Amino acid sequence: MNTRRVNAAADVIARAMENGRQVPAAMAMALESAQMLMSPEQAAELEALRRKVADLESQLAALTAQGQVLRGSRSTPSPEGEFHSFLHHAHTTPHDLPPLGGAR
């Protein structure tokens, strides 16, 4: 039971009663207008989505932990310096094309 939702519903019902509504159908209409009611199908779908989110969050946590282990197990440091950048001229110069000015 979610006490926050129960308290919110109780608040809506109390306000409906303050406005002179005493019939259960009138209180249900107040809950519906506050968008606090849902069909059994919607409730089942919401529960399935919550389970899916929990499953995905646990998968994310496992993959994050695995990534940290893999990053920590690198034996060679990552390259640094002038030639590390992909903007370096060696990476941008097309070596397989003929020189400018056409074939000789």
What does this structure look like?
The chain has 104 residues and is an all-alpha fold. The chain has a domain at 1-62. It has helices at residues 3-18, 24-33, 40-72, 89-92. The longest helix is centred in the middle third of the chain and has 33 residues, at 40-72. The mean pLDDT is 76.
Keywords for this entry:
single chain, 104 residues, mainly alpha
Task: Please outline what is shown here.
This protein is mostly helical and 104 residues long. It has 4 helices and no strands. It has a domain at 1-62.
Q: Topology, pairings included?
A:
Layout: H1 3-18, H2 24-33, H3 40-72, H4 89-92
- Helix percent band: 55-70%
Give the topology string: H per helix, E per strand. HHHH
Largest sheet: none
Number of E-type strands: 0
The global form is elongated
> What value does the average pLDDT take?
76
Decide which structural class fits the backbone. Answer: mainly alpha
